[in-house]
Amino acid sequence: MQFFKYPEYMGKSMTVAAYVRVSTADQNLDRQLEATHDYAVDELGCDSSSLEVYRDKSTGTDIKRSGYRSLLNDAESGQLDAVVVHEVSRIARSISDLERTVKRLRDAGVAIHIVSERMVLRPDEESEDPYQRALFQMLGVFAELDAKIKRQNIRQGIAARQEGDEYHHGPAPIGYTKDSGELIEAGNYHQVCEILEQVARGDMSQRQASKKLDCGRKTIRRAIQERSELYDL
To answer: Catalytic amino acids?
Structure first.
């Protein structure tokens, strides 16, 4: 196996994984699949037939991001050496989510290659490098901004649902308040989104989430299973 850009991999038998994700039903994974495949083959010298691909379409039946959870489980069990993603917003949607994911992968000895930013986070490198740390934080900011823009687009689609009696006369969903029947993000909206996403991924139990958000487990289940579009899950 030949490695072109990263000599530290030369002569090693390694497993490279690609992680791809889309968050709406009308998107497809082709662009990410092509970009991560080409990078793994051209930059890491990976044989295309041996590239492990983990994928999520976080809508409807797969709100738990099963591909993401499988990726982390396999990384932490020592089955992976490197993970390739097309851009940072595909694997994380906030700074805290990014730092949590990167820490788990680096603790497992797995390098992360971000194609569009041409950035590599290696497990044997600490974050003392001020340039890399600043770039890393900046990418997290952009991921969070990207998620916010998507939520704004999603809220435009919520308007149709607000015509129903439940939205006008029922209580506001968790993380929201109401103003003349209109749903408005509450002060804890971002915290609610992050906790619900952790539950959906399997990183937090419904019981833990209900304690953190001071609500019943039924509220947590309903938010994830019936109102996922309100939280961009």
So the answer is: 23
